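Data card: per-record layout.
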Amino acid sequence: MKIDDTRNDFMGGECTKQEFIQRMYEEHHSKLFDYSMYLSKTNIASIEIVDGKVIMTSRDRAVRMLCPLGDHRVAPVEALNFLDYETVDSSMIMRLVSPTDTVIDIGANMGWYSINIAKTFPSSRVHAFEPIPKTFSFLKSNIELNRLQNVIAHHFGLSSEKKDLIFYYYPEGGVNASAANLSERADAEKITCHVERLDDFVYANGLKVDFIKCDVEGAELFAFQGAVETLKRDNPIVFTEMLRKWSAKFNYHPNEIIALFDAIGYRCFTARDGALVEFLSMDEATLETNFFFLHKERHERQIGLLELTDC
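The structure for this 311-residue chain is written out next.
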């Protein structure tokens, strides 16, 4: 029962004042104390409840994030559920990003990675791309909430060509917004969004790219196809999601991404126990979903320091 329902029972005379006080505490207010004890186990240091908003603050970097009502999968909520959010991969990212890097966040969602990188490296420059209007508004709000000047939000996606695409999403899973209906739900909402090529954006803005994070729910191959010239010229480190079930919706296999990078001098790795483990090919037994691509020559030092060679 919601708080308003309990109060309406009292106002309608369905319970006494004493019963109302007891119900409000037992059914609602006591949960505040449950959270206060639970938080100490997680990377969420605090939860602020203000007019119409819930703001969660991370323990490690004091990143503040607005949480949309009804979305089950945003990073702070995931950190509550699983005590932290993608810790192995996040730790490796922070080891691979350098203090003055130019970072591209493709599929920034509400900004978890962009903001963590920007706060950790104040002299870095992060370009965050998010095409879904509602999600983009949260991205901008979270950047402002953390008072960051080194994150620039861009209201379009990145793909293999400049065009408009139909994206699908559902309110309780905003992080799964995609140009394919991944959930196959009949009630998935549709919206037309604009996408461009990273190569065109980089050229127009005179950028040299050092690090790319890409999570676009199955359309990763197309984002990289639109970034081939940047990859060849700048050899940025790349962190990306690759899932067979999502890429299948776009009629390709993740091994095509591995082949694209291999052709321009990259090696593929997963992160394990603070080390990089070489990954050659994905098959039906593959459990990993997040991968790092490092250029054989440009990142020889990082590979030498981090690669696990006795596995």
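Known properties of this structure: The chain has a mean pLDDT of 93. The radius of gyration is 22 Å.

See the next section for split statistics.
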